[in-house]
Amino acid sequence: MNPAELSAYLDGELPPERTREVERLLAADPGLRAELDALRRSDAAFRAAAQTAAFRPPVRLPASDIDARSLLATACLALVVALARIA
């Protein structure tokens, strides 16, 4: 079994029939189970690292200071300026 398919199994992305086939293979193959366990540990480590690396701004502005329309207008203007520089 290729690593991508094992990863898809871990993420619950396989069709039901293929999931059952993989589960039968896992039941019969200790090496494949070890590979899945290693993949689970790696996945957990990556998720934990992503959580600690997530940006959290130290200051939050009160909602009344910025309304959604102004924020959207500013974002659109920034996008237009960036696209103009590329062109």
Written overview of the protein:
- 74% of the residues lie in helices and 0% in strands.
- α2 (16-28) packs across α3 (30-53).
- The protein contains four helices and no strands.
- It is mainly α.
- It has helices at residues 3-10, 16-28, 30-53, 68-86.
- The longest helix has 24 residues, at 30-53.
- The mean pLDDT is 85.
- It is elongated, with a radius of gyration of 23 Å.
How would you summarize this macromolecular structure in one to three sentences?
The longest helix is centred in the middle third of the chain and has 24 residues, at 30-53. The protein is 74% helix and 0% strand. It is built from four helices and no strands.
Indicate the topology.
Layout: H1 3-10, H2 16-28, H3 30-53, H4 68-86
Helix pairs in contact: 2-3
Low-confidence stretches: none
Say how many strands there are: 0
Q: Cα distance, first to last residue?
A: 47 Å
Helix content: over 70%
Radius of gyration (Å): 23 Å
Shape: elongated
Structural class label: mainly alpha
Mean pLDDT: 85
- Helix and strand run: HHHH
Roughly what fraction of the amino acids lie in strands?
Answer: under 5%
Largest sheet: none
Supply the number of helical segments: 4
Task: Give structural attributes.
about 90 residues; mainly alpha; 4 helices
